[in-house]
Amino acid sequence: MKKIFVTGGAGYIGSHMVASLGEKGFDVLVYDNLATGHRDALLYGKLIVGDLQDTRLLRASLHDFKPDAVIHFAAFIQVGESVQEPLKYYINNSVNAINVLDAMKKEEINNFIFSSTAAVYGHPKCVPITEEDQINPINPYGRSKAFVERTLEDLSRANAFRYISLRYFNAAGADVLARIGERHYPETHLIPLILKAAKGERENVTIHGTDYDTPDGTCIRDYIHITDLVEAHSQALEYLFSGGKSDVFNCGYGHGYSVREVVDMARSVSGIHFPVIESQRREGDPPILIADSSKIRQKLHWQPRYDDLNFIIKTAWEWEKKNKS
Fold first, then answer.
1. Which of 18, 45, 106, 174 is the most exposed place for a label (fewest CB within 10 A)?
2. Mean pLDDT score of the chain
C-alpha cells in the first residue's frame, strides 16, 4: 500500500482527491490548517491540523509517515484578493510551498504533484492554450503559482526529485454521490454562485461583461468536472511511480461554455428561473480560456468521463441542496 501525503486535503479539490485515493486503497495523511478546508469533508485517511509555516511539525509529519509522494493543494485561490493582499498569497502559495519542498528534500521524498493554474498564462495569445505557450501571469495569484513552477523545474534538474504540475482550468461540480462538494467562504466561483441564487441564498446572479468578442458577448471558460480532475492526479501519480520524468499538463476538456450558457443550463437543471443582472467587465478577465488537453490525454492516457455541462451542474446542484451555507 503506497502512502500519499496531501496538503490542503480538506479543501474542495483536496477532499475529492483524498476520497479517490482512499477508495483506491492508498494510505492517506492529510495536512491542513482548516483555514478554508472542512474536517467533515474528509471521507478517508487521517488528519493533522497544522500550518505549513510550522516547519517543525511539517517535517515531523513527513518523517513519521514516510510517504511515497506528496500532493500539494494548500493555496489561496481568489484572484481579486491576491491583488488586494499580495503578501498573503506570496507567503502561503509560494513560501509555504518552498517549506513543503524543503521538508521533502530533508526526508528524501522525491515524488511531488503540484496544484497549479491556468492563471500562469495571463492573457493568452492563442486559444486553445498549450503547455508550451508563454507564462505571463497578470496577478499575484498567478505569479505565486508560476514561481513555484520555476522552483520545481530547478529542483528536478538538481537531484532525483520529480514532479508533475497540473494547470487547472475551471474545476466544477461535486462528488457524484453528493457526499462532498464546493464550499468556499466567500464563494467566488460561477457555478456555485448561480446555484446559491437558485436556492434563494442570493438575490441574483451578476454577469460581469456582455460585450466580449464571443458569440453571446460573455466570457467563455473550460469547465472540468472535479472527478475527472482528480483522475488526472491519479494518472500523474502512476506516471511518477512508473519512473516518468517531470512534466507540466493542462487540465481541461478543450472546449468551453459562456457565462450565459452556464446560467441557462443551471436554470434547466434546477427548474428555477432566478434573476440575472448584467454588469461591467471585471478587470483582468480574458474573453476565452480553453485548454489544449491533448498532451495529458496522450502522455498520461487521461480519459475524462464527465465532459458534460449538464452533468457538471447536476452534481453541483445535488450537493448544493444538501449544503447548509
1. 106
2. 96
Question: Which entry of 141, 163, 223, 306 is annotated as an active-site residue?
Answer: 141
Query: 294 pLDDT exceeds 70?
Result: yes
* CATH code where residue 140 lies: 3.40.50.720
Note the pLDDT tens digit of each residue in 17-30: 999 999 999 999 99
Range of the domain at 280: 190-221+254-322
For the chain, the three-class secondary structure string (H helix, E strand, C coil) is CCEEEEECCCCHHHHHHHHHHHHCCCEEEEEECCCCCCHHHCCCCEEEECCCCCHHHHHHHHHHHCCCEEEECCCCCCHHHHHHCHHHHHHHHHHHHHHHHHHHHHCCCCEEEEEEEHHHHCCCCCCCECCCCCCCCCCHHHHHHHHHHHHHHHHHHHCCCEEEEEEECEEECCCCCCCCCCCCCCCCCHHHHHHHHHHCCCCCEEEECCCCCCCCCCCEECEEEHHHHHHHHHHHHHHHHCCCCCEEEEECCCCCEEHHHHHHHHHHHHCCCCCEEEECCCCCCCCEECECCHHHHHHCCCCCCCCCHHHHHHHHHHHHHHCCC
Residues 267 and 278 in one domain: yes
Is residue 212 flagged as an active site residue?
no
